[in-house]
From TrEMBL:
Top-level taxonomy: Bacteria, Bacillati, Actinomycetota, Actinomycetes, Micromonosporales
Protein name as annotated: protein acetyllysine N-acetyltransferase
Keyword Metal-binding: yes
Residues holding Zn(2+): C129, C132, C154, C157
Residues at the catalytic site: H121 (proton acceptor)
Enzyme Commission (EC) number: 2.3.1.286
Keywords, sorted A to Z: Metal-binding, NAD, Transferase, Zinc
Organism: Plantactinospora endophytica
Domain spans labelled Deacetylase sirtuin-type: 1-257
Pfam hit, one: SIR2
Length: 257
């Protein structure tokens, strides 16, 4: 077997935080948002359905939102090589924590324990009532949509139902964000993977990590606002880059042992 090349920024790393965006899931058949074939690129007006104020005010917007998720590719998607590489890195004994902007649940399906995955923008696998705050499994609500309810309401209080995701104009959960900042600050290496790093405050976790002394490596097809802080910027496809990086980190940790 060929020796694994270990970059300097991989050495002496035991604590790894991974900030993941839509780009890590495109190989699983889930389109990103701002890429050449992204959701917003193909249909800019669809962003209205993902804006909190519009969603709450307009039943037609909510109907379009639910219809979009009814046939969402994530329901059929499987973890790809990048997701699996991170799960393997975790199994290798490094302290891995996932800070994901994605709502698809593929990190957990790849084998990362749910307690090690922080879903910054929520999860499409749950539904919350905006009135009584009751939570339920998303599939039950989607079944109602499939049966003809264009704008399903809460069966307990009649309130508007929302998929358990953070919409534009909606604040991230402060407890989740505080935990993400603590994880970023405690890491020795932060990998920012498949994210444009344009959406705040999630993107600012890169700066939090660097200020605390961590190394930042950006793995993304396009330039990001945080490339200047990075120890390395990787432009190769994520599905090949992450297995290579995970192998280097594992090899470095093994050498120390």
């Amino acid at each position: 077997m060929d020796a694994v090349e270990i970059p300097d920024w991989c050495r002496d790393v035991r604590r790894v935080a991974v900030l993941t965006g839509a780009g890590i899931s495109t190989d699983s058949g889930i389109p990103d948002y701002r890429g050449p074939d992204g959701v917003w690129t193909r249909d800019p007006k669809l962003a209205d359905a993902f804006t909190r104020d519009r969603f709450m005010a307009d039943p037609q917007v909510r109907a379009r939102f639910w219809h979009t998720y009814l046939g969402h590719a994530a329901w059929r998607a499987e973890p790809n090589a990048a997701h699996r590489a991170l799960a393997e890195l975790d199994r290798a004994g490094l302290a891995v924590r996932i800070l994901t902007q994605n709502v698809d649940g593929l990190h957990q399906l790849a084998g990362i324990a749910p307690r090690k995955v922080l879903e910054l923008h929520g999860s499409m696998r749950s539904v919350v009532c905006t009135g009584c705050r009751a939570r339920s499994d998303a599939q039950a609500t989607l079944d109602r949509v499939a049966a003809g309810e264009s704008d399903p309401t809460c069966r307990d209080c009649g309130g508007i139902l929302q998929l358990g995701v953070v919409l534009f104009g909606q604040y991230l959960d402060e407890d989740v964000l505080d935990q993400a900042r603590r994880i970023a600050a405690a890491s020795q290496l932060l990998l920012a993977v498949g994210s444009s790093l344009l959406v705040e405050p999630a993107a600012s976790l890169c700066e939090v990590a660097v200020r605390a002394g961590a190394r930042l490596v950006v793995v993304n097809r396009d330039p990001t606002p945080y490339d200047g802080l990075a120890a390395e910027v990787v432009r190769e496809p994520i599905g090949t880059a992450l297995p290579r990086i995970a192998a280097a980190l594992t090899a470095s940790a093994t050498q120390r042992n």
